[in-house]
Amino acid sequence: MGRLSVRRLLLWTVAVLTLWGTPVLGVDQEDVEQWVRSVVERSEEFPPVPGYSIGWREEIVETISAAELAAMRREASGKPDHPLWQSIEMYSRRLQNGPDITRIRLYARDAKHWRCNFTLEYLDKYWDRTVTPKTTWALTDKQLAIIDPSYQIPNGRDFARSLPSLRGQLGQFLYGGLNSLPWMESWSVHRASDPGAWLVRSTHTSGSVHEYVLRWHDELSQFIVASRTEVAAPPGREDRVGSRVEYSGWRHDDVLGSAICTEVRRLSKSNTPTTLYFLEGFEPLAPDALEAMLRVPDVQQEDSLRGMPTATTVYDYRPEEQKVARLTPDGAHEEPLVVPRQHSKSWWRTAGWILLTALVVLFVALWLRNR
Questions:
Q1: Which residues pair with 265 in a beta bridge?
Q2: How far apart (Å, rounded) are the C-alpha atoms in residues 230 and 241?
Q3: pLDDT tens string 312-370
């Protein structure tokens, strides 16, 4: 599972359009489209390889010069509430310590059972999200939040919503970003002005248009995505036009059974790197390991991945609990957790039945009145 079928492998091989500018086998635009569709089809599989976790590293390298930072400090001087202070702190840190590095690792059985660990090395903090059908929870170095997704989801704590974003990031490594094509209004294949490349042009309903450059990789004997450029942007975001993403370090991965990109670079329209992503690879999971990883942690006992938690506050939103527990040297202190009822799925379900009943009663009354 996760490995290319013979049919797909043949399709990838047949999809040789050019080899360093020299046409091969007379393959045409339709063959390229079939190759792209095969990549999109593979991207629907989740997790990409069952029984393995996958990790990657994000490095935010965008910064400014020391002179620009000094100018920002002068502008915000004497104004403790000035919005520039957050940027000043961020750029000061990067100028002094280097990139903001976050390590991410995803553990998943399927789209309804997964855990993703974020380790923010530049802040010495972590943030883990876990989703199962019965319980979702998030663990940080400060607190634990536990939620029953069938009952209520407090604002800002719908952890399941982050999965599409995570799959999007993974898709940069596994599919060269082509996994985003199903979400576009349309996409099409064109010959590039460079005789050794083809273009995939995608259009979003917002007005954003991207062009992916496909090139033949001789050692892998298949196409790879070399780059993606934003050639049109939504109204008001014209500053994004010309920004691009570069995909490099393509190699065959034995676990995935296909080619994989190991480095992704985001660049501004001025060709300045802003964020770098590095694939850190697959790791096998023991048969029962995922069960322990998904289990709601007890902040006073070791977690299977984080060890002994440092969280001192537990927000339990489950209907049978509804409490906040604060751990102090004197012991745990609990207090009721007030949750706005409007966020409760059961509240909306009840309201729906009440409204439906009222409409039925009204209909019957009008029918009797007009008899």
A1: 246, 276
A2: 5
A3: 999 999 988 889 999 888 887 888 887 655 444 444 444 444 444 554 444 444 444 44
* Closest listed residue to residue 109, CA positions, set 287, 304, 298: 287
Alpha carbons 100 and 104: distance in angstroms, whole number: 13
pLDDT at 339: 67
Count other Cβ atoms within 10 Å, centred on residue 85.
Answer: 14
Enter the DSSP assignment of 297: P
DSSP H or E run through 316: strand 313-316
Q: How far is CA 220 from the centre of its chain?
A: 27
Quote the pTM value. 0.82
Residue 19 structure tokens: 């080899």
Take residue 305 and report the two structure tokens written for it: 């991945």
Q: Are 235 and 198 in contact (CB under 8 A)?
A: no
CA atoms within 13 A on the CB side of 324: 10
Among 261, 211, 204, 269, CA closest to 240: 269
Q: Are 154 and 136 in contact (CB under 8 A)?
A: no
Rama region for 229: left / alpha / beta (φ>0; ψ in -120 to 50; rest): beta
Strands (E), 141-208: 143-147, 186-191, 197-203
Query: What does the alpha-carbon distance between residue 193 and residue 216 come to, in Å, rounded to a whole number?
Result: 15
- Other residues' Cβ atoms within 10 Å of the Cβ of residue 201: 16
Q: Measured between alpha carbons, how far is 319 from 317 in angstroms, rounded to an integer?
A: 6
Asked if residue 69 lies in contact with residue 92, where contact means CB atoms within 8 angstroms, the answer is yes
Please report, for residues 171, 227, 315, the alpha-carbon distance to residue 215 in angstroms, rounded to integers and kept in the order given: 18, 9, 51
Phi, psi of 192 (to 5 degrees): -85, 160
Pairing of strands 22-23, 197-203: unpaired
Residues 6+ apart with CB under 8 A from 39: 175, 176, 178, 179
pLDDT score recorded for residue 321: 85
What six digits make up the tokens of 137?
């929870």
Bridge-partner residues for 189, per DSSP?
Answer: 200
3-state secondary structure of 149: coil
**Rounded to an integer, what distance in angstroms lies between the CA atom of residue 54 and that of residue 253?**
12
